[in-house]
Amino acid sequence: MSGIAFEPSRFYDAVVQCLTEMCENYLKAIDVTELYSNGGTPGIECGLCQHRMEVLSATLMDPQPEMS
After folding, report:
1. Over the stretch 17-47, which tens digit does the pLDDT of each residue have?
2. What are phi and psi of 22, to 5 degrees?
3. DSSP character at residue 20
4. What are the DSSP E strand ranges found in 1-68?
5. Which residues, 6 or more positions from 41, have their beta carbon under 8 angstroms from its beta carbon?
6. In 3D, which of 50, 60, 58, 63 has the Cα closest to residue 24?
7. CA 51: distance to chain centroid?
8. Whole-structure pTM over 0.85, yes or no?
9. CB-CB neighbours of 58 under 10 Å
């Protein structure tokens, strides 16, 4: 994972990429809206190969979405 410091229990607009060489998403920048940071360590998997994706950038959403 990148050196981004995530605040716990927050939503981010993020850009991620898959690092699995045999995946069609390999090294493609993919926008993710409302990436939840969990306890400060967000987890996101590639929809094609189901391997963990690397977060390239993340911007804290302001305002934060309301959780229902």
Report:
1. 999 999 999 999 999 999 999 999 998 999 9
2. -85, 5
3. -
4. 11-18, 30-36, 53-60
5. 1, 6
6. 50
7. 13
8. yes
9. 21
- Rounded to 5, what percent of the chain is helix, strand, coil? 0, 40, 60
Output the CA–CA distances (angstroms, integers) from residue 52 to 2, 23, 48, 61, in the order listed.
Answer: 13, 12, 11, 22
Residue 68, both tokens: 């229902």
For 41, the token pair is 């360590």
Say how many residues make up the chain. 68
d(CA 24, CA 9): 31
pLDDT at residue 3 in the model: 80
Name the nearest CA neighbour of 17 among 44, 37, 40, 41. Answer: 44
Cα–Cα distance for residue pair 21/63, rounded to 1 Å: 36
